[in-house]
User: Fold this.
Amino acid sequence: MPDSRPDTATPVSTPTPLTGAATATTRRSDATRGAILDAARERFAADGYERATIRAIARDANIDPSMVMRYYGSKEGLFAAAVSVDLRLPDPSAFAREDAGRALVTHFLDMWEENEVLTALLRVGVTNQAGAERMQAIFRDQLLPVTRAVCPDPEQTPARAALCAAQLLGLALTRYVLRFPPAVALTRQEVVAWVAPTVQRYLTAPHP
Assistant:
């Protein structure tokens, strides 16, 4: 006799793959966000925070101003996103104390040459107070811990970190923003050879 009991087996659901249309939409969204952020960095650097407008940034990005508001909510939100950067500093445990200067200079050269965001942030930072405060926060939160791990006296950490920042940002300003020809002409090896010993001295030398 045929089994008349109802089939109680749980149907197996098949995951719905991401459709081509959804993938294309995501890519367009990412491209739009990137265009907005690029335009915002340029505009904030050129006009400063107060004078830069959502309308001007949208025009530079070739989109409607409503799209900027849709993605970032306000000029404050856009600015925060435009100048957000993770320095991805190397873990101090990954190098010997006496190699800290070389490790930092090499790392920053990689950052500046492979990622224009940090250079854009520097340009914003030297043109308006909001950008300067953001740059200060980034270096305070990310460079201080590395400095503290290698310097001989924890009380000197802020001063030593500030000196390192002055050296590294001065290098970036002359080589990547102002583009002084002699600074641009230096090879990476020459930059490291000249600058790393100075950064190392700031980090680990006895207090003068």
Remarks:
- The chain has a mean pLDDT of 87.
- Residues 20-51 form the longest helix (32 residues).
- DSSP finds ten helices and no strands in the chain.
- The radius of gyration is 24 Å.
